[in-house]
Amino acid sequence: MNMIRTIFKRELSSYFATPVAYVFIVIFLLLAGTFTFYLGNFYERGQADLLPFFNFHPWLYLFLVPAVGMRLWSEERKSGTIEMLLTLPITMWQAVVGKFLAAWAFIGIALVLTFPIWITVNYLGSPDNGVIFASYLGSFLMAGAFLAIGSCISACTRSQVIAFILTVVVCFLFLLAGFPLVLNFFSGWAPQGMVDAISGLSFLSHFGSISKGVIDLRDLIYFLLTIAFWLYASAVVIDLKKAD
Amino acid sequence: MIETQNLTKHYGDLTAVDNISFKLEPGRVLGFLGPNGAGKSTTMKMLAGFLAPTSGSAKVCGHDVVDDALAAKRVVGYLPEGAPSYGEMTPRQFLGFVADVRGLTGARRTQRLDDVIERLHLNGVMEQPIETLSKGFKRRVGLAQAIVHDPAVLILDEPTDGLDPNQKHEVRALINAMSRDKTIVVSTHILEEVHAVCSRAIIIANGKILADATPAELEARSRYHQAVSLTTTNIAAAKEALSRVADVAAVEIDPQDHRITAFPKPGKQIFAPISELLRTQGIQVSELQLESGRMDEVFRTITQGEAKEARA
Predict the structure, then answer these.
(1) What pLDDT was estimated at residue B221?
(2) Across the strands, what pairs with B60?
(3) A115/chain B closest Cα distance in angstroms
(4) Is B102's CB within 8 Å of A244's CB?
(5) A48 — alpha (psi -120 to 50), left (phi > 0) or beta?
(6) What residue of B is the nearest CA neighbor of A240?
């Protein structure tokens, strides 16, 4: 646990040692605001909730989270620091989890900084803050799932650009897993059970049910399992690929 | 202490390290020599616990690098090739991070950090991001990282590569100073370094150990071992006189600086008869030297001989 904390601290502080963190946070806040007010018609709807705000999170994350995830391992591999890191007396698991948690916490910080919109909606009306809390939780979990995918794909390549593009594509598929675009591809030949299983993987439907204010244990477990699975895959990939 | 047994590593079809076995006691500095791609780095990566061997085993201080990986990593300090470190961090942050991961706390942590900063003369750059430092400083930060926990075993992959002569000298002095109670493995392709720091040298090529000896023993394999070289203005007369000495097998003149070298017949000493002869013949020499053997020549003979066999 101590080791995870030490790695977590180093990673998180290195985000803020470069302009990357500030650029990310500013862009995230700007886009979140723009989407909410212009595309989501926050005022025109005349309802005291944050649905227009949270509805755009999956699409915002689709491009911004891979940008955070892409450097997780490909940078370590490219600069050779992975060799230093993994010969320190830590386990692979501690390294993978420590780095992931730091990146997740970083996105969490960006998410927390959207609090003015929560103040705004509370000032304008009396929203159901339980639903808003649930939506924040769902949004954060979804970001974690995107990030875990990014961690695994960034472990596959030294190139951050490749890691970014592949992560966007894989995240896009997971996002839309429950929709015809993805399902049609499988429904022709795969057994119905498999098609159902794939449609159950959709980030969008799990996030949708949490953000309605229903914190169903199954949705939470879904995201946590997704994160665990991709982190496990990251560790496997790192082990396989570190020789080259 | 380091002990490897039939250590082997395959990358797909390529055998990078092929059945390497050796044992190294504390207080000894082992130099790993070999052409590029010989398997030096791969061997060191396995010793440091970064890569798992395909077969065979390696132990550091009795801990197997695979089965007891954490214990092995704790006693090893490792400088990877190119001395990678996190560029956006300052040396203070970076070394602090390594000290934390190495489990150093309190007064011991402060004392160890002060010690490595002092030893590697990092005082002036502690607050600058590592990526802005010169190559020499980056290398020293990497070395500091490797020795911050005062490890019993030190594995240094090309510690002096890319350094200027003064910096090379400093790093060698550092290795010598630490060699008394540690087990150290250094890889290099700078042959003079072997003499300067190593008490034992292993030459590998194509993943196999081709020679395992002290630097002096290796030099003794050289054609130049016990040869006598001299510089004179009277080249023709000197050459003529030298070839008449009974135990001289051959006389060669360097085409560039016209230095004359006389090679002895196997096992013969020719320095005394030659200096005696030069005096009696009245040949003036500006310099006269007994050669101990040329490492680069031995290295070439050993590694290229192997390459020729492999091709045939």
Answers:
(1) 85
(2) B2, B63
(3) 30
(4) no
(5) beta
(6) B51
SS (H, E, C) chain B: CEEEEEEEEEECCEEEEEEEEEEECCCCEEEEECCCCCCHHHHHHHHCCCCCCCEEEEEECCEECCCCHHHHHHHEEEECCCCCCCCCCCHHHHHHHHHHHCCCCHHHHHHHHHHHHHHCCCHHHCCCCHHHCCHHHHHHHHHHHHHCCCCCEEEEECCCCCCCHHHHHHHHHHHHHHCCCCEEEEECCCHHHHHHHCCEEEEEECCEEEEEECHHHHHHCCCCCCCEEEEECCHHHHHHHHHCCCCEEEEEECCCCCCEEEEECCCCCCHHHHHHHHHHHCCCEEEEEECCCCHHHHHHHHHHHHHHHHHC
- Asked whether the beta carbons of residue B80 and residue A18 sit closer than 8 angstroms, the reply is no
Q: Which residues of A touch B101 (CB under 8 A)?
A: 3, 6-7, 88-90
Instruction: Note whether B161 contacts A: Cβ–Cβ < 8 A.
Output: no
Chain B contacts of A3, Cβ < 8 Å?
101
A68 lies within 8 A of chain B by CB:
no
- Looking at the predicted structure, is the pLDDT value of residue B173 above 70? yes
Q: Given an 8 Å threshold on Cβ–Cβ distance, is B70 in contact with A89?
A: yes
State residue B306's pLDDT score: 57
Predicted confidence band at B311 (pLDDT cuts at 50, 70, 90)? low
Of A55-64, A175-184, B111-120, the poorest mean pLDDT is in A175-184
Rounded to whole angstroms, how far apart are CA atoms B213 and B252?
28
In chain B, residues with a C-beta closer than 8 Å to the C-beta of A6 are 97, 100-101
Are residues A7 and B81, on separate chains, in Cβ contact within 8 Å? no
Note whether A87 contacts B89, CB cutoff 8 Å: no
- The pLDDT of residue B301 is 86
Distance separating alpha carbons of residues B118 and A161, to the nearest angstrom: 41
Q: Could you give the ipTM of this predicted complex?
A: 0.89
Q: How far apart are CA B7 and CA A44, in angstroms?
A: 72
Q: Which residues contact B259 (CB under 8 A, 6 or more apart)?
A: B229, B230, B231, B253
Q: How confident is the model at residue B308 (pLDDT cuts 50, 70, 90)?
A: low
- Would you say A81 and B79 are in contact if contact means Cβ atoms under 8 Å apart? no
> Which CA distances in Å does A25 have to A30, A111, A117, A140, A198?
9, 9, 15, 15, 33
Tell me the pTM: 0.89
Joined tokens for residue A89: 């007396």
Residue located via tokens 């135990």? B247
Whether A89 sits inside 8 A of B93 (CB atoms) is: no
> Which residue type sits at B134?
S
Closest C-alpha to B56, from B23, B21, B32: B21
Q: Residue written as tokens 């969490």?
A: A108
Q: Which among A7, A10, A86 has the least Cβ separation from residue B50?
A: A86
Kindly state the helix (H) or strand (E) to which residue A54 belongs, with its residue range: helix A51-55
- Say what the pLDDT of residue B154 is: 95
Inter-chain CB pairs, A–B, below 8 Å: 66
Residue appearing with tokens 């204010």: A213
Contact between A10 and B86 using a beta-carbon 8 Å cutoff: yes
